[in-house]
Amino acid sequence: MRMAPHHMMPGDKDALDGIKLADGTYARVWQFARPYRRTITLFLLAILAAALLALVPPFVVREIIDSSIPNSDRDAIKVLAGIAVAAALADAGLAIFQRWCSSRVGEGLIYDLRRALFAKVQRMPIAFFTRTPTGAITSRLSSDVVGAQSAVTSTLGSVVSNVIVLTTTLAAMIALEWRLTLLTLIVLPVFIIPARRVGTRLQGISREQMGHNAAMNTQMTERFNVSGAMLVKLFGSGHRERDSFESRARGVRDTGIQSALYGRVFFVALGLVGAIGTAAIYGIGALMVVDGEISTGTLVALAALVTRVYQPLTGLTNARVDLMTSMVSFERVFEVLDAPEAITEKPGAFDLIAPRGAVEFEDVTFRYPPAVDSAIASMEQNAGLGTGTDPDVDVLQRLSLSIAPGETVALVGASGAGKSTTISLLPRLYDVTSGAVRVDGHDVRDLTLDSLRASIGVVAQDPHLFHESIGENLRYADQSASEADVIAAAKAARIHDTIVALPDGYDTVVGERGYRLSGGEKQRLAIARLLLKNPAIIILDEATSHLDNDNEAHIQAALEHAMEGRTALVIAHRLSTIRSADRIAFVEDGRIAEIGTHDELLASDGRYAHQLQAGELVTPS
Fold first, then answer.
1. Which of 418, 440, 480, 486 has a CA positioned 20 to 30 A from the CA of residue 587?
2. Residues 6 or more apart from 369 whose CB is under 8 A from it?
3. Each residue of 498-556: pLDDT tens digit?
4. Which residues contact 445 (CB under 8 A, 6 or more apart)?
5. What is the dihedral angle through the alpha carbons of 111, 114, 117, 118, rounded to the nearest 10 degrees?
6. Using DSSP, how many helices (H) and how many strands (E) does the chain show?
7. Where are the alpha helices (DSSP H) in 224-237?
8. In this predicted model, which residue has the larger pLDDT, 154 or 530?
């Protein structure tokens, strides 16, 4: 189903009806359709051929009634019947060919749009994902893409087919009897007048239904993963969730009923007009047959053809609504493709070759980017992009820190001091507001993203694992890693014995986000993944927080071995982890307040020593 912008309020008819397509939308649609122009041309030619073939049976019947039957010409009847059968077979073949063309174009467009959207979403900054529901993202990649391709296949094919059928049918009817054809056209205004009003209302209902669908899908996506389902169960909010879902599903139901009723009334009314027109043809045409003005065969042919006039008219009266609805989906796809990319490679960016691991933060000031620079309003769903939601404080303030190659520096400080923000600037998850972050003397903004991030390995406090096997999760760091490499990394992280004890060993599927494993097992897998990547710079964000003392000792030994010759930035609250660092940087209010070894900072009796003594910084181990 095609999706509508989430920020539209259900029932806001004026806002819905006032929506206009952005300039250049049609031109951009053509850019996506252009690779398929030959197939589209064949598709349209097949439609033309099918429309012409459909005229054969009425003329065959006319000839049989007016000539072959009165003359008892059996041979002519056989030939004419054979022509009708041949036309039917050819029409069937053309129908299959049309389907092949439309599916080739349609599925090709879906592939192209999804590929472009997936690549674009991958390039979006982390701030985009912190503000955008997963359901809204998947909606653009699924429902909107399917809705967009229908503009080129279903809608375009329908419009062209209806125009051709209407034109050829009217031409054939005029050739048979122009007066009865004019009688058929008199009822045209009756089609046009209700079509504009009812069609516009149907478009509004369709958009409203799309909004309800998007909200419903987002709720399902967020509640039906392991974390969401567990939260709902633990907080006993099942009734509230059901009520919320029922409200959204009710909106889909009610708008669906409205759409069905409006559509049915509309098409029944048009069908009634068509029936009246057909009755007029029979009535007046029969009188003309009695008066000898036309033949019986001509009347039968006209009666058969007139039914082919009102059907395309019915489709064409709603063509604008169908086209606009499909184009809204295209516009929503383009909205994502045009979204700003806060983190990009500058022209002339170069690779970081053989990194040594020198890291420098020079007078770094940082505030999180405003929503308008990192999010899409229609995908936020109740979050809003007003200026009142934009950050107005600097998280980091002229922070400076130099780390030599191979040095281990621990960042400590109270929650919210800026530790995690600091390390997120190194792999360019965010860019500094002012100042610079350098690796081996190169501003990270001058380096290619792939080479920069290839030199950095991260183990987070809550490492993410994909719903795949243990082996596949480990090889995500290095797709070319051999089995021996994977096992060596797992042994170094003290997780190999645990893995082989599982029924499927390295083929064990870990479950969504690794929920089949304990917190300590997930972290050891993340450490193994880091070791397999073999980066020059290591970031450990509470990497041992989920381990008991015994496990921590083993992992600490593995990490110390892994960090030999590598630069390491460590965020930790365990005293044993902090004391093993070469230097400790005490972060407070977005600045480096103190820096030195553990003993030096204790001797200085500053902020680090005071908070350490108060038990506010570390967890004893």
1. 440
2. 125, 127, 342, 391, 430
3. 889 888 888 988 877 677 777 778 888 888 888 888 899 999 887 666 556 666 666 67
4. 346, 428, 431, 436
5. -110
6. 26, 10
7. 226-234
8. 530
Q: Tokens 């989906």 — which residue?
A: 329
Q: Which strands, in side-by-side order, build the sheet including 591-596? A: 456-459, 537-541, 567-571, 408-412, 583-588, 591-596
Say how far apart CA 51 and CA 495 lie, in whole Å: 69
Identity (one letter) of the amino acid at 48? Answer: L
Residue ranges of the chain that CATH labels 1.20.1560.10: 13-337
List of long-range contacts for 183-191, beta carbons under 8 Å, 24+ apart:
183/277, 183/280, 183/281, 183/284, 184/277, 184/280, 184/281, 184/306, 184/309, 187/273, 187/276, 187/277, 188/313, 190/273, 191/270, 191/273, 191/310, 191/313, 191/314, 191/317
Per-residue model confidence as pLDDT tens digits over 269-284: 767 777 777 788 888 8
Average pLDDT over residues 152-175: 85
Backbone angles phi, psi at 509, to 5 degrees: -80, 130
- Residue that is written with structure tokens 């184009």 in the block: 327
HSE-CB at 217 with a 13 A cutoff on CA atoms is 23
- 594: which strand partners? 586
pLDDT at 240 over 60: yes
Helix, strand or coil, per DSSP, at residue 132: coil
* Contact (CB, 8 A) for 546 and 520: yes
Rg (CA), the chain: 35
3-class DSSP state for residue 460? coil
Residue 474, CB-side half-sphere exposure with 13 Å CA sphere: 31
Residue 333, pLDDT > 50, answer yes
Which residues of the chain are in CATH 3.40.50.300 domains? 406-431+448-613
Homologous superfamily of domain range 406-431+448-613: P-loop containing nucleotide triphosphate hydrolases (3.40.50.300)
Query: Any long-range contacts for 588-592 (C-beta under 8 Å, 24+ apart)?
Result: 588/413, 588/414, 588/417, 589/397, 589/417, 589/418, 590/366, 590/394, 590/395, 590/396, 590/397, 590/399, 590/417, 590/418, 590/421, 591/396, 591/397, 591/398, 591/399, 591/418, 592/399, 592/400, 592/401
pLDDT at 128 over 70: yes
Cβ contacts of residue 87 below 8 Å, gap of 6+? 53, 56, 57, 60
Rounded distance between C-alpha atoms, residue 238 and residue 597, angstroms: 51
pLDDT-derived band at 13 (thresholds 50, 70, 90) equals very low
Q: Nearest to residue 578, comparing CAs of 524, 542, 527, 534?
A: 542
Check if the beta carbon of residue 64 is closer than 8 Å to that of residue 77: yes
**Pairing verdict, β 537-541 and 456-459:** parallel
> What's the rounded Cα separation, in Å, for the pair 166 and 182?
14
CATH number of this structure's domain 13-337: 1.20.1560.10
Q: What is the pLDDT of residue 11?
A: 33
Pair 544, 572: CB distance under 8 Å:
yes
Is 590 within 8 Å of 363 (Cβ atoms)? no
